[in-house]
Design goal:
single chain; alpha+beta; Alpha-Beta Plaits; 4-stranded antiparallel beta sheet; about 35% helix
């Protein structure tokens, strides 16, 4: 049977950049697991080019444990790699390649140790959940979770193997992505009283978001388990106007909330909508076709799991580390948890290596990940 490093090498060879298909990797994993007697469930995107895999080994009529990871990786375009990013390179006790840290090594460990689960008399099932399009908004896993929660028996708990250096993560921030469209009225800039300047209206709203951030930074709410210890607001894109002597009819900008899990982003949206509504009457007085529209195109739940929850207790025991932590980045764990499956994040590798050229994971981290999963197997065997 292949080792974990053999599996890492195989998985890295699949270019599953988020704007490409992941079907070949999923089919490889499905064939490998079905050969071990696993029950395979696939859920697809609308174009049937990407798929999630949910594989079960063991008695399906008992709540089991999910080991979850995403198969997609971020682009390598424009990055200066010293080796082929889709061919595993081993140097100085480290494994280099796109996805080694984030997060194909965890998936590879699951696959490499799957034969041991298959051969063992399990008291409960082990589930492997491998998703698509995590990197662009935790998109694919939503269909997997919808499918899994419709099963007669829902999983008992879930461990998402994002790179945490085997620390047990019980909290992460949520994220809401919003696109705002401002529709003004175009006219010659010399007669700007006849127009509605969409760029200026958008600028007022961006400034309001900045003031919201300042208020939160100074007044909270705070959770010092995170860095920074408050909800963040960020405007990242803006586009509008056609020429300096034309009052712009259109402007759009995109912003995000990265919220503490106990800080409802809908409250923040309500504040911005209220401010926008105050701007509209002056716009409509010039032209009834003007207005402001919001497109909330992605929302991912934050994670907040109690230290005493079964998932957190188990993960601490398996990792050999009694401490827990929180992180500011967002994962699929919040969505599993929101669906009623208690979840923590714990996996090999460092997030500091993710998304960079010459991404790597140390061999020692792979060994620690293997030890974690083998200890889990020991807990799941019938006595």
């Amino acid at each position: 049977m292949p080792t974990s490093i053999d599996m890492i090498e195989r998985l890295i060879s699949f270019d599953t950049t988020s704007y490409k298909a992941n079907i070949q990797l999923i089919q490889f994993a499905a064939d490998f697991l079905s050969g071990l007697g696993a029950d395979i469930r696939l859920t697809y995107d609308d174009n049937q080019e990407k798929a999630n895999l949910f594989a079960t080994i063991g008695p399906a009529d008992i709540p089991g444990i999910v080991l979850s990871g995403h198969t997609d990786v971020v682009p390598v375009d424009g990055q200066d790699w010293s080796s082929d990013p889709f061919r595993l390179s081993r140097r100085d006790h480290a494994l280099y390649g796109r996805g080694t840290a984030d997060m194909k090594s965890f998936i590879a460990i699951c696959l490499a140790l799957a034969p041991e689960f298959s051969a063992a008399p399990l008291s409960m099932p082990i589930h492997f959940a491998f998703s698509y399009d995590e990197e662009i908004g935790c998109i694919g896993v939503r269909r997997l979770i919808q499918d899994v929660t419709s099963l007669p028996v829902k999983p008992r708990l879930c461990i998402v193997g994002e790179p945490t250096e085997m620390r047990v993560i019980v909290g992460h921030k949520g994220k809401k992505n919003v696109r705002c469209h401002v529709h003004g009225k175009e006219c010659h800039s010399a007669l700007n009283h006849q127009g509605v300047n969409a760029v200026e209206i958008a600028a007022e709203m961006v400034t309001f978001l900045r003031h919201m951030q300042k208020h939160i930074r100074e007044n909270g709410p705070f959770d010092h388990g995170y860095q920074p210890p408050y909800t963040t607001i960020h405007t990242g894109l803006i586009q509008g106007g056609t020429a300096l002597n034309i009052v712009p009819a259109h402007c759009s900008f995109e912003f995000e909330f990265r919220n503490l899990p106990q800080h409802d982003p809908e409250d923040l949206m309500a504040q911005l909508r209220g401010f926008a509504q105050d701007l509209v009457p002056e716009m409509l007085a010039v032209d009834g076709a003007t207005g402001i529209m919001f497109d909330e195109y992605n929302t991912t739940a934050g994670l907040l799991t109690d230290d005493d929850d079964e998932a957190a207790v188990l993960a601490r025991q398996l990792s050999g580390n009694n401490a827990t932590a929180k992180v500011s980045f967002t994962t699929e764990a919040g969505l599993f948890n929101k669906a009623g499956i208690p979840t923590v994040v714990c996996g090999p590798g460092s997030i500091a290596q993710a998304h960079k050229p010459d991404e790597f994971i140390t061999v020692e981290q792979v060994k620690q990940g293997e030890a974690f999963v083998r200890r889990l197997l020991g807990r799941m065997v019938r006595s």
